[in-house]
Structures are given as structure tokens and as C-alpha cells.
């Protein structure tokens, strides 16, 4: 295995990490901004409200996308194990 193969595998790993984390990060960010906006407009200063709404939103997104995430991670892991078998 040469350097270009290692760089390719590392970039593939980073892309998979980015794609798998994107739904939860986007939902948490969007909900955080929306709840902060509502809190600023209504002058509610409760921090647990923002945490609870983001927790519920992220939990729903994780429940909806866990199958896709698991398949993507397992495919990458199988690819890495097959590569280890070929190299070693």
C-alpha cells in the first residue's frame, strides 16, 4: 500500500464522517437558531427549553437515519477489512 492509497482511504473516511454527521449537526444548528430567535422575541430566558428541543430534534433525526448510517459505516468497515486481508 503506497501513500496515494492511504490518502485516498483517509479522504474517503473523512467524507463518510462528514456525510454521516451532517443530518444531526444541521438539525441541531437550525433548531438552535430558531429557538434562540423565539426566545429573543419573547424574552424567555430558559436555557433548558433550547436544550430539550434540540435533544428531541436530534433524537428524531438519529432514529430516522440510523439504518442509512449503519449501512454506510458497515460498508466502509468491510472495505477496510478486505483491504487489510489483501495487504497483510
Could you list some keywords that capture this structure?
mainly alpha, 88 residues, 2 helices, single chain, 92% helix
Descriptive notes:
This protein is mainly alpha-helical and 88 residues long. The protein has one domain (3-86). The chain is 92% helix and 0% strand. It has helices spanning 3-42, 47-87. Helix 1 runs antiparallel to helix 2.
Please give a quick description of this structure.
It contains 2 helices and no strands.
Number of strands: 0
Strand content: under 5%
Structural class designation: mainly alpha
H/E series? HH
Number of domains: 1
What is the chains' assembly state?
single chain
Radius of gyration: 19 Å
Shape: elongated
How many helices? The count is 2
Outline the secondary-structure elements:
Elements: H1 3-42, H2 47-87
